[in-house]
Amino acid sequence: MQPAHRPLPAFGRRLKRLRRSLGMKQMALADLMNVDQTTVSRWESAAILPNRETQQAAFEKLSACRKDDGALKRLVESSSDPVHLVEETSHICLAYSRSRAVEWRSGTGDLLGQSLWKFATEEIQQAEHELIDAGWWDIHVPEPKLFRTSGASYAEMTILPGAILWERLYLADGTPVRLASGARRAA
């Protein structure tokens, strides 16, 4: 199965949360993206939706502005539980444990720096959409999200069916990240 290239839901809210967490003005982001401040404002208010490539470029440029948080990454990587950490706005993989690598049938580090959104099952996509109605993007510390997913298999990774728990954490620089945990079993 080939991973899908799908846009992330609530792009504007994600963009605004990440930009603000970095203490960046709309004009500074506009300069990075070679657009005007009004365009960034319209993106954030969902008045206009840029194409997928522009969305990804915006998240990548903002991600480049933040500092890594080595301590949290080491905690995730050394966990005996199957856990992974993604940047919340873009789903870029920041760290994952050895047991998660075994579950995914991938090497340790193979998926670092890649957006995992392209591998999202229908249930993961649905759970992501439900975050919008739950006010996830407007709350500083939202309630954890627990749901079940089906399995999926790609050349780069395998998702096993089972429970997933999403919890928002923050890096030292204020960047919102998502800790995904929950053991899943091969069918």
TrEMBL record:
It comes from Hwanghaeella grinnelliae. This is XRE family transcriptional regulator. SMART domains: HTH_XRE. InterPro entries: Cro/C1-type_HTH, Lambda_DNA-bd_dom_sf. It holds the Pfam family HTH_31. It comes from the Bacteria. Residues 15-54 form the HTH cro/C1-type domain. One of its GO terms (molecular function) is DNA binding. CDD domains: HTH_XRE. PROSITE patterns: HTH_CROC1 (PS50943).
